[in-house]
Amino acid sequence: MILLDRVTKTYGKSMKPALSRISLHVEPREFVILVGTSGAGKSTLLKLLTREEKPTSGKIVVGGIDYDHLKDKHIPLLRRKIGVVFQDFKLLPQRTVYENVAFALEIAGMTNREIKSTVPKVIELVGLTGKEKSFPHQLSGGERQRVAIARAVVRQPKILIADEPTGNLDPKHSWDIVRLLEKINHYGTTVLLTTHNVEIVNKLKRRVVTLDHGKITSDQAQGSYRQGRAA
Ligand code: ADP
Question: How far apart are CA 155 and CA 151, in angstroms?
């Protein structure tokens, strides 16, 4: 599903690669936590997957799409396979919960009828039924992240990338979000989570891939946050 084979990424004229001969294989439906100190290369890895950045060398295949043969016109198709949520939610502030989620379908060219039948289901999935007409500023941080997750999964991507989704949340809301990611994973979506939250990593008992200075230094099946790696 996600395959990286000896991928190196060097930005511009930088001497030091951000990622150095990374090889990683993630199966469909896996839940993988990516950890590493600031500057380790986590964001670069995620940007290579979403094709915001191109590797300097090495092979990337996601959902059967070989990035070596990926034409610009196919990038929207690729992005449909990958939903992304961020630490700062990135919601549209002038739009309601419903509209934020519907917007993702409008730009994909869905009809109004399809939108009307799809959006309520996703809002229910993330536990926001009753909040459809609220604006982002009327919601808690945890609720805003739920809207962002609804928007990311409404087109049923194969992969959900959650880049520090709990970074702005208190412990209770953080766990609510992690449980929601687990639910989405349970329904069949591959989840790639980056976090600095030691407790979440240690309690989840999921696969943990540790990056350090652009290299994978450990890959554990039921991993924990390793001492000395905390940011
Ligand atoms: P992380 O997400 O783990 O904090 P990054 O992938 O952001 O790590 O960064 C890895 C390395 O690449 C760092 O040394 C960083 O300074 C460098 N880097 C990241 N983005 C860019 C960029 N757009 N231009 C130049 N260097 C970059």
Answer: 8
**Which ligand 1 atom minimizes the distance to the CA of 43?**
2
Kindly report the protein residue whose alpha carbon is nearest to atom 14 of ligand 1: 39
The model carries a pTM of 0.94
In the chain, domain spans: 1-81+157-168+190-225
Ligand 1 atom nearest to CA at 19: 10
Q: 3-state DSSP call for residue 1?
A: coil
Ligand 1, atom 23, lies closest to the CA of 11
Q: Is residue 179 classed exposed, middle or buried when 0-12, 13-18 and 19+ CB atoms within 10 A define those classes?
A: exposed
**Six-digit token string for 97:** 């919960």
* Ligand 1, atom 20, residue with closest C-alpha: 44
Instruction: Encode the chain (231 residues) as per-residue pLDDT tens digits.
Output: 899 999 999 999 888 999 999 999 999 999 999 999 999 999 999 999 999 999 999 999 999 999 999 999 999 889 889 999 999 999 999 999 999 999 999 988 999 999 999 999 999 999 999 999 999 999 999 999 999 999 999 999 999 999 999 999 999 999 999 999 999 999 999 999 999 999 999 999 999 999 999 999 999 998 888 754 444
1-81+157-168+190-225 has CATH 3.60.21.10 classification: no
